[in-house]
Amino acid sequence: MIDLSPKEKVYQLLAEVPDPEIPVVNIIEMGMIRDVEIHYDGVEVFLCPTYSGCPAMDMIDSMVKEKLAENGFVNTVVTLVYKPAWTTDWMNDETKEKLRVFGIAPPVGKASSKKGMLNEEDVACPQCKSTNTEIKSMFGSTACKSLYTCTDCLEPFDYFKCI
Amino acid sequence: MDNLNLSKFCIRLGDHCLIMAHRQSELCSNGPFLEEDIAQINLGLDLLGQAEALLIYGAKLEGGSRTADDIAFRRPEREFYNFMLTEQPNTDFAFVIVRQYIMSLYLLKTYQVLAKVEDETLSGIALKALKELTYHERHFSMWLKRLGDGTEESHERAQTAINELWMFVGELYEEDEIDLMAQKAFYAPTGIEMKAFLMEHITARFTESTLTTPKDIYMTTGSKKGIHTEYLGYLLTEMQYLQRAYPDAKW
Description:
Chain A is α/β, with parallel strands linked by helices. Chain A has four helices and seven strands.
C-alpha cells in the first residue's frame, strides 16, 4: 500500500461525501471542492457553493467536518469561495453519466454559451434517450433543476440546468 | 471607499435581496399553480443566498460584534435600507411580477458592475448572482408578456400593478453619498446610467407586452434614510418574530 500525503488522504475522504440532494455523486465530482490546505492546527477545505442560496450548504459543511473527524482530522474549517463561480462545466462525462443513470438528465452544452445557459439546448430523456422532450417548468425540485417530460416514453424527469 | 462605507453599500444591497426574498417566500403554497409556486420560492432562495453573502461581508467590514443574523433580525425598520419597491405586498400576482421584474433589472445592472471590481469577495458574490439573475429576469419578463398580451383581465391587472408601483421606481436611480463613493471607487452605475438602463429595458418589454409605461409622475423617496411604507413594519414583524420572541434561539 502506498502512503498518501495528508492532503491526498483528505481528498480521498472528501470523495466519500455525497451531494445530499443527489447521493450518486460526491462533492468532488460536483466540482464543489476547490482546494484543501493542511495547516499545523487543522485542515481547511475550500468549498464552492453551487447556488447562492443552496440549502444543502450547511449540511455539506457538517458532513465534511464529520467525515474528516472520524478519520482523525479534527479542527476542520470549511471556507466558502465564490470565485470563480461554480459551473456545471466542471462536471466530467463520467459524472454526467452517473446523473443520467440516476434519472436526472445531465446539463447539455456549456454554461458559457447563451443557448446552454437559457435551457435552449435539446435535452434527452434519461430513460429512453429520446430528444422529443418538452420543458414543463424552468424550476424543479431544487434550484439547480428544471422539470421536463419525454413525449415519447411520457416519463417526467429532472434536468440539471446548465449554469 | 473605506470599510465602513463599503459595509453600508453591501448591507443596502443585501437588504434589497432579503426583503425581496421574504416577499417571494410568502408565495410558498400560495402560488397560482404548483410549478409557479416552486419557481417563485426557488428564485426567492437565490435572493436569500445573495442577501446572506452580502450581509456576512457587510458585518465583517463593519468590524464590530454584529453578525449577519443580527443585521437581518435585530434591526428596526428605520435601519433597513431596501427600496420601498421591494417591500410592496403581493397584492395580486401581477404586482409580484412587475415588482420582481423591475428589481431583477436593477440587480442585473448592479451585479454586472460589481462582478468586475477588484474586491475579491464582492466580485465573487456578484459573479455568482449574475448567473442567477439572468434566469430571474427571463422568468419575470416571460410572465409580463403573458399577462400583458394575454386576456383582457390579465392585461388590465398587469397595467394596474405597473401604475400603482411606478411611484416607487424613482428610488432605484437616486444617489446619495454612499452611491457617489461607490461610483468613484469602482464605477458603480450613476443615477443617470441606471435610469437609462432601466427605462430602455422596461419600455421595450412593456411595449412588447402591450403595456403602457407611465408618464413622469411623482416619485417617492426616503429608503436610503430608512424611511419606508407601512408594509415593511408588518413584513419585519413576521420575518423577525422568532428572534424577537426567543432571542439568541439557534437552529
